[in-house]
Design a protein that fits this description.
The protein has 72 residues and is mainly α. It has one domain. The protein is 96% helix and 0% strand. It is built from 1 helix and no strands.
């Protein structure tokens, strides 16, 4: 094997490794974006549930206040 052939083999292997690296980064980036979206959705959903619970508690509190005022 000549030095030129070795360099060609090394170059081809490097190209394959570089492609593999790029493909892996693409997969990781997609997975990261997907998880970021899931996190965003969960946070929005939980915040909505907490707001709903707060509204329900306010309504119940107002009802209790009105009942107590009516009995006095």
């Amino acid at each position: 094997m000549s030095a030129l052939n070795v360099d060609e083999v090394i170059d081809k292997c490097r190209q394959k490794l570089d492609k593999w690296r790029h493909d892996c980064h693409t997969i990781i980036d997609r997975f990261y974006e997907e998880k970021c979206q899931e996190l965003q959705q969960r946070c929005v959903q939980q915040a909505g549930q907490k707001r709903k619970k707060i509204r329900q508690l306010k309504l119940k509190t107002n009802e209790l206040i009105q009942e107590q005022e009516a009995t006095h």
